[in-house]
Amino acid sequence: MGRSLTVVLGAALALASCKDRRTPPVPAPSVSPAPSAAPPAEPLPERAVSGEAAFELLALDDGALLAWGGPTGLAVAVLDAAGRARGEPLAVPGAPREPVVEIAGASLGSRVGLAWASRSEKGAASFGALGDAETRAFSSAFALSDATLGDVTRRGHVALAVSDKAEMVALVRVRDEPCSDSGGPTCAQYRFRELLPTGVEPRGLPMSVPSPCAPGHAGLVLVKDRWHYGFCSEGSGQPEVTTFMRQLSPFYVGVAKPAPGCTPLGALRLDADALFVFQCGDAPRAVRIGGLESGERSVDLSRLTLECVLGRPRFTAPGLALDLSAAASGLGPLLPVSFGGGAARAAWTGSALLVASWVKGRVSLRRYECRGAELARTG
Q1: Does the pLDDT of residue 17 top 50, yes or no?
Q2: What is 46-377's CATH number, 3.30.160, 1.10.10, 1.25.40, 2.130.10?
Q3: What pTM was computed for the model?
């Protein structure tokens, strides 16, 4: 590319009855109640949302969490494993009552981290908060940074990832600045911020992206002591993603350009690797990136299959085998178009796959469950 890249969810009980039989000496027959009918599926929550990227869906250890931005700020709903709301929506204390542009999040057990970008008459800014779904409590919102907004219909302003040590790290787009070379164009600026109970701390190195694509970043994944992240630039006239792998021991930063000409859809953790997902023309593809001991491995997502094995979904493709057992978030980029495609957010709760999508100004939540070998829509 023209310039290199530099160093954020009853039916009534039917009982059979009988009238007393009064004809002696025959006693009244004993009639047992019929089994209770299963309660019908309740409507899944649907909320007005302020933008195509202003929602997030996360898996919890016993359900899910749906966060969305309305015209007057951020709201959060705790869901059960089937996608039904548990109680009334929650508010994040101190969150600005401003239109939300984008929300990203991460979860570990019942712990949740959220990062979001919003805009007001004064400009754009990003914020973060920590929460616990079990206690239904959130910290006060943290100010992360002033921001420059790109294409607000696309994700790419905030990302959030959680490490094996429960570190919540946000990647946020801050205010654009002139590129380092004299007379150059303005570059998108990104910074890393760790969300702590006591506030926010800067982490990592600042990143500068010339001629950013609409999805400016390609995702953030934390695996062991490695940080995997990437950025998209159109400085060469076509999308080009540069990915980074930074590890602490031994210290090393690896740089790659895994999918020239392809647009990033997001990234997720796959075993001990980071999986970056791309749209390459009409075909999706992905690249697995691990540590120093493993090179890049291509995954042909155009041949992806999604089926149920032993009551659980399984994603398979050349170079990929993902069996969902424990709860998992961030599955949207892997979804076939029929399930919502890469723009959707998806989480496996241990018994259902929940998929959140933007539909005509609302966030729509759908539920899929295994019925034999098929993952069928049930809500």
Answers
A1: no
A2: 2.130.10
A3: 0.87
